DNA sequence: GCTGATACTGTATATTTGTACAGTATCAAA
DNA sequence: TTTGATACTGTACAAATATACAGTATCAGC
């Protein structure tokens, strides 16, 4: 009953791809064109069949209202796009698109914060923050321009590279600390630029 | 030049909300209706202004082709929806929508895996896996039905609760190990159900 | 051999939708 | 004071679009 035919899978995949790539689902005409149907009804039939099988939804009489149904779609929250930078030379004056290495898209609720235009992500290199359970390869989401508190993990510009450190207030002075015994421990933060404060983290699969 | 007026912000927000909630951007008529405009042109004017300011895009003569522009949109990859379960009593026979506590939406590339219908997420309770740098409150993404390898982090059903453990092959037998010295170390896995293998992790902001 | 589901062609039509044109009024900047 | 941007009303129309109806052909299951 729920099994899709090969043709239906092709049609569904086409709709889904267009939805992801262009943000718009195709019209019946566009479906027909893509598959070389000379009749709209062919496309309409497939859409009807996919609806019947519960994998496609439709708002009657509305243009481009096809939607591929994910069982969890109803629970979906707004998704934010956060740029991933390799390293940030300056203090993020105006982070430009061409500087981004990629884009992390994640829903706001799971992130725990509301991203702003000053939110960005860095890929962690090395295990200098292993004491804070941040590993090599982790994607760290940071917020630029907020005041860091004592103990916050921050990104700082050291030797023209963005590096993660723990910010420490001690005896009225500000220090940056690595969280790995094998690394130099304390650096005076006076001359360093704090580029962002860590807000969240994404760890991809390893190996 | 780029600053939006209050009215323009309202219009943009309306379009964005509809896009997120219904998956469709509104038509000019729907915008006009929502704001009580008696004329389509009022809506059209706002859309034109927002386009001019670069925060909205449009494919001419296409129905519902409005799209709110994020600077990073071009980099966006397909986003997957992964159900979040509180705990999973049985071996996930058919995880039903009503059992889901929420939904984690994240792009496939950042996740490092291609989610399947057997992908799900658990919220970590306690710090029994701190040795693997998994903290209380972390969101762990797991895959059901794949064969775990030695050293993989897995979710197992213990006392009717899903608990994370490290799977250890030793002397031809399978054990589950907690990664915290204060917890009981080894449990024979023979009678336990492995519900999933950890693939990725999301850490939200703390405090 | 019959039946229902699938996979189409071809035509027609009502509705939805974007767009254009002609105005009015307000407000801030030059 | 003038100019341009903003914020609308009101009307009209062509294009885009969903949908309906009448068929044909194939194939699997009964």
Please characterize this protein's 3D structure.
The structure is a homodimer of 207-residue chains. With 207 residues, the first copy, chain A, is α+β, with helices and mostly antiparallel strands. Helix content of chain A is 20%, strand content 30%. The first copy, chain A, has four helices and eleven strands, in the order αααββββαβββββββ. Chain A has a nine-stranded mixed β-sheet with strand order 4-3-5-6-11-7-8-9-10. In chain A, strands 1-2 form a two-stranded antiparallel sheet. The longest helix of chain A is centred in the first third of the chain and has 17 residues. In chain A, 32% of the residues are buried. At the A-B interface, strand 3, strand 4, helix 4 and strand 11 of A face strand 3, strand 4, helix 4 and strand 11 of B. Chain A binds a DNA duplex (30 and 30 nucleotides) through helix 3.
List the helices and strands and how they pair.
Two copies of one chain form a homodimer.
Chain A lengths: L5 H17 L5 H8 L4 H13 L3 E2 L9 E2 L10 E7 L14 E8 H4 L7 E5 L15 E5 L9 E6 L2 E10 L2 E5 L8 E3 L5 E10 L4
Helix pairs in contact in A: 1-3, 2-3
The first copy, chain A, binds a DNA duplex (30 and 30 nucleotides) through helix 3.
Search tags:
homodimer; 207 residues; alpha+beta; Arc Repressor Mutant, subunit A; Umud Fragment, subunit A; 2 domains; nine-stranded mixed sheet; two-stranded antiparallel sheet; 11 strands; 20% helix; DNA-binding
